[in-house]
Automatic annotation (TrEMBL):
This is FAD dependent oxidoreductase domain-containing protein. Residues 17-225 form the FAD dependent oxidoreductase domain. Gene3D superfamilies: D-Amino Acid Oxidase, subunit A, domain 2, FAD/NAD(P)-binding domain. PANTHER family: PEROXISOMAL SARCOSINE OXIDASE. SUPFAM superfamilies: FAD-linked reductases, C-terminal domain, FAD/NAD(P)-binding domain. Its cofactor is FAD. The keyword Cell division does not apply.
Amino acid sequence: MGPENSQSYQLVKNTMRRNKIPMVVLTHDNFSQHIPHVNLADGDEAVVDISAGVLYADRALKAVQGQFQKLGGVIRDNEMVTDIKPGPVVTVSTYAGVYWAKSVVITTGPWANRLLTHTGLQLPLEVVKINVCYWKEKVPGSYDVNQRFPCFILTQGEESKEHIYGLPSNEYPGLVKVCYHKGNETDPDQPDKQTDRSDIDILQRYITRCLPGLIPEPAVVESCMYTSPLPVCAATRTN
């Protein structure tokens, strides 16, 4: 969803069209017939990816780990890496032992640069804390996944030019996940010191305006961290 003539919305729409993703375009006139309990602003349009869905992170991780183990991989839980030495054979040291490999994939998220210090590499990464907010339905089931309420992204709105996104009530019964796709820089070892709530204020205004079936006060606030120079994935090699 987003202003019909805005660059951010048209980029999404044109990308879907270019990649031949099955989609339906909804206008302000017919939007509520297909997606109730959401107010689409005047001048906004929506494009529906009819093949979209939700990946459950816990199930996805379990599936990847299971496949990894089937292929001979070994998972070492609670074994902190203390050093990485690049070379023709990469040496990885932990509190429990030393390992060697032809290559290493580092997926340490917010702690990436601290670990990369041992390799002589540093990436232009910024770690930001995201407030993950869940909002209570006024009428239970209105935004439920079983009612086929969709995931959504607002590319920009009157509250902000940053994305606002949401998922149907599912993870917590009766609570809808609606979040702001931007946060504030934080220390990954002390994320609770970052207490800025300006993003929650933006979400409250958006929910009051566009999601009238939700109580505009978060029922649950959790947190996560983004680690990237931009909202894209970054990767490098150690070999």
